[in-house]
Amino acid sequence: MTLRLLRLCGLLLSLSCGTLGTAGGEPAGLPSSGVGPFRPLQEGELTPEALVPYVFSNQTADYREPCVVGTSSDPTSTAIWMYAVGHVGGVDVIVRTRADDARSFYGDVADNSGGAPPTPPVVLQTSQTWEGALGLSGPSALMVSGQLWLYYAAAGGIGLAQSSDGLTFTKQSAPVLTPDASATWETTTPHAPSVAVFPDGSWHMMYGAGVSIGEATSPDGITWTRVEGNPIFVPSPTVDPATLGPGEVPPFDEGQVDDPMLAPQTTIDGRLQVRVLYTGYGAPPGTMGRSSAIGFAARFGDGGPLSSQPDPVYTASLHENAPGFFEWSGGSLVYVSEDNTSISTSMPFPSIAAGYAPATNTLPGPAPFPTSP
Amino acid sequence: MRPLRLCGSLIFLSLCMSGESRANPLDAFGFGSRETAMGGAVAADVSDFSASYYNPAGLAKARGFELSIGYFRADHFLSMNGLNSGVDPVKGIVGGAVVPGKVYGLPFAIGVGLHLPDDRLTRVRALAQDQPRWELYDNRNQRLWFGVNAAISPFPWLQIGGGVTFMAATLATLDISGHIDLIEPTDSSLRHQVLADLKSVTYPDFGARVEVTKSFALALVYRGQFGLDLNVAANVKAGIGAGAAGDITTLALALQTDTIDSFLPQQVVLGGSWKITDDLRTNLDVTWVNWGAYVPPVTKIETQLSVPIPPGTTLPGGVMAPTTPAPTVVTPISIHDTFVPHLGVEWRALARPSWEGFVRGGYEYDRSPIGAQTGTTNYVDRDRHAVSAGLGVRLLAPGKILPGDVRFDVHGQLSVLPSATTTKNDPSDLVGDYTAGGHIWNVGLMATVGF
Predict the structure, then answer these.
(1) Subunit contact A268:B421, Cβ cutoff 8 A
(2) Mutate to test the interface with B, among A1, A6, A14, A30 (most CBs of B within 10 A)
(3) Contact, B265 vs B289, CB < 8 A?
(4) Interface confidence (ipTM) of the complex
(5) Contact, A69 vs A333, CB < 8 A?
(6) Closest CA to B412 of B36, B50, B28
(7) Which of A94, A197, B30, B130 has a CA positioned 20 to 30 A from the CA of residue B404?
(8) Cα→Cα distances B447→A108, B148, B277, B409, B450, Å
């Protein structure tokens, strides 16, 4: 008996077990703020003729500074309109295009089944004295009671145009936000507006000026008042490269923050979360070849400064800037102006690229290009 | 006597050499149908194969050689923001054996216990710190458990026991060298060398059981802490060239990853068993779990990368020279020790000359050890209320071949994790606020043959 026990004991003590098994299921349904990190669109998510990740591109028109608005209240719908700056007739104008899948835009260079791509219509161009002659920029569109309100920037400040069909606009006769000499941080004319209506009905506008981002509020979307405490978002403090550890990089937005894209939401806990995508520059304006990336900043509540993520949520090292944003039940897309080097690496032209989040998911195949803008 | 002394010495040596203890699915879902049905409150009331886990001292109470085998399955229905988190089920074969005997005339027994998953023997999954995951359910329970224990009863009122459990740690190196051709990738020639070493890890547990009276017993159990070390080193050295032009630069990458996976902290169990009548018994265990020592399975990565750009080369737009990434900075996890109460009841509802029937019930409350995830980490967990029930049948001396007994036990356990909301301090947190909760079903059955 004792010998048997010894053998058993020895056998058991000599055993060891351990191996790697199958991966099993991946975590699913993970919560997210919906604002990245984004990955560039990839092959299979755009039509085969398209050059990923560009969704709206034309070497002549130089489409850039996108802004999108959903055309349906259905949270599963990906039908959107895009307003973007284009260079038409020697001046910068605002054009409109649309996509049924948020990716295949009417008039993109790949929309060429009939030969040359169709031309998206110009919906807004300079026509008033305060706008100057250089053109328009920074469109920001939102639906208000069935009307489309389109804010834009021009030489004299920020203007507003309204439309019932999204194509034919009526401008306000004067800018809704003009330079304020008492705001010493606004070393440039306010530009790059982004407007949203908060759940309490108040209107909020964020805009770029100088190297920072400011905020104004309005009861009706037309009469705007700058908030106390501007600027609400400034560049990250500059870091001396000599103090960085191995592999560490300085803040991507220590030179300038610009192009806010306002996307408020109510969290699952009922808190108002003001989400802002923005362009972060690694060097001040005027610096040759400065880098840029898309960052994310936010705050809880309807007022106060923004805090930001230290890392970009979208980066391609192609001077990406001016983010637009669209969110639906299947994820979210960021649209950015980005250098297109498909024709020349030394002479890139601006195009509109898109990134998708959750980055680990894959979008279904693209829809056909729309037949109208 | 020598063989027995040698055997005892081997066990003692194993215990002394073991520095860590177990991480296993048994803590979450129990081990054996009778024990799970009683809420795991059996430290002072166990003598079958499951004593290898609950209290090795109980083995010394075994009446004869026993073989047990069964199956259990736990399905998770855990969600975040109303979406199922897809946590894999834990399922597999459960079993073991008890071999009693005498040493110096004293009751002595050896027991083995096995939890053998039928999907995988173990799984390692190291996620980014900010990725939400059910920290105590997603991966930690996906592993094999195998324990060997011995016990002795020096006095009729005292049993003591201990043992070891086996697991493996991984140490691996990966070396790649050769030439990468940018123009003709098929002309690239890379040599790979992989060296992997699976080291055996053993970890101990000890237990004691004291019969205070004929109807009341106390137990004390210690389980050490365990962590599965995973160390992988990769080295890549290659020349990068374009066709016949030869190498234009070189690639040198050294990567070292260190992960502690499947960590489970040390535990101390104080248990009591009160035989109220011949037919009714109630047990209470309280387990102290040293969660404060927990090491989350976050991979620490250190990298050295060198790809020198040849002089006079201009990179096209969008292309940047790769640089060495900063090493991973692991954010400490907010976690604290817990006391886990287990309550169990067993009623011999039917007693016939040739068989007996049992009804069992149990309850366990696991207060979540993980602090509020208000920062960048998302180790999701919730308090757990586990209610269990079971039935058992014992056939007494069913035949000449089986002079002992045959037992069949089934159990069902419902764990409820009440939903709660995690709110973030940083409004720019990329995960944001979320609710999490759900429930887990655990069912199983066992058959035991006693000789």
Answers:
(1) yes
(2) A30
(3) yes
(4) 0.84
(5) no
(6) B36
(7) B30
(8) 69, 20, 26, 7, 10
User: How many angstroms separate the CA of residue B203 from the nearest CA in chain A?
Assistant: 12
B35 Rama sector, left if φ>0, alpha if ψ -120 to 50, beta otherwise: alpha
In sign, the C-alpha dihedral spanning A113, A119, A120, A121 is: negative
With an 8 Å Cβ cutoff, is B301 touching chain A?
A: no
Q: What is the DSSP code string of A77-136?
A: ---EEEEEEEEETTEEEEEEEEESSSSS-TT-TT--TTSSPPPPPEEE---SGGG-SSB-
Cα(B377)–Cα(B383) distance, rounded to whole angstroms?
A: 18
Residue A155, Ramachandran bin (φ over 0: left; ψ between -120 and 50: alpha; else beta): alpha
Question: Residue holding tokens 């999108």?
Answer: A68
Do the Cβ atoms of A31 and B200 come within 8 Å? no
Alpha-carbon dihedral angle through residues A63, A360, B375, B143, given to the nearest 10 degrees = -170
SS (H, E, C) B208-260: EEEEEECCEEEEEEEECCEEEEEEEEEEEEEEEECHHHCEEEEEEEEEEEEEE
* pLDDT tens digits, A328-369: 999 999 999 999 888 877 788 999 999 999 888 899 999 999
Q: Kindly report the length of chain B.
A: 451
Residues 6+ positions from B46 with CB-CB distance below 8 Å: B35, B54, B55, B58
Strand partners, B161: B151, B207
> DSSP secondary structure string, B388-446?
EEEEEEEEES-SSS-SSEEEEEEEEEEEEEEEEEE--S-TT-SS--EEEEEEEEEEEEE
Cβ–Cβ below 8 Å for B4 and A274: no
Largest CA distance in chain B: 96
> Residue B425: closest CA among chain A residues belongs to which residue?
A300
Angle between helices A2-14 and B2-17 (to 10 degrees): 20
Residues of chain B numbered 103-142 and touching chain A (CB < 8 Å) = 110, 112, 117, 119-125, 127, 131-133, 138, 142
| Spatial distance between the Cα atoms of B246 and A311, rounded to a whole number of angstroms | 38
* Six token digits for residue A223: 């009469």
Q: How far apart are CA B51 and CA B151, in angstroms?
A: 10
**How do residues B50-106 score in pLDDT, each as one tens digit?**
999 999 999 999 888 999 999 999 999 999 998 888 888 888 999 999 999 988 889
**This prediction's pTM:** 0.81
Contact A279, A257 (CB under 8 A): yes
Helices (H) then strands (E): counts for chain A: 1, 21
Q: How far apart are CA B424 and CA A267, in angstroms?
A: 10
- Looking at residue B370, the DSSP 8-state letter turns out to be B
Give the angle B410-B360-B368 at the CA atoms, nearest 5°: 90
The residues pairing with B409 across neighbouring beta strands, listed in sequence order, are B392, B446
Give one word for A334, left, alpha or beta, with left for phi > 0 and alpha for psi -120 to 50.
beta
Which residue shows structure tokens 């026991």?
B161
Determine whether the interchain pair B120/A24 forms a contact, defined as Cβ–Cβ distance below 8 Å.
yes
Among residues B296, B413, B393, which one has the least CA distance to residue B351? B393
Predicted confidence (pLDDT) per residue in A156-201, tens digit:
999 999 999 999 999 999 999 999 999 999 999 999 999 999 999 9
Handedness of CA A339, A341, A347, A352 (dihedral sign): negative
Sequence letter at residue A319: H
Measured CA to CA, the distance from residue B47 to residue A129 in angstroms comes to 94
Q: Give yes or no for B433 touching A (CB within 8 A).
A: yes
- Which of A242-263 are b and which e, b meaning 16 or more Cβ less than 10 Å from the residue's Cβ? eeeeeeeebbbbbbbbbbbbbb
A146: Cβ contacts below 8 Å, ≥ 6 apart:
A164
Between β-strands A80-88 and A91-99, what pairing exists: parallel, antiparallel or unpaired?
A: antiparallel
Contact A317/B427, CB-based, under 8 Å?
Answer: no
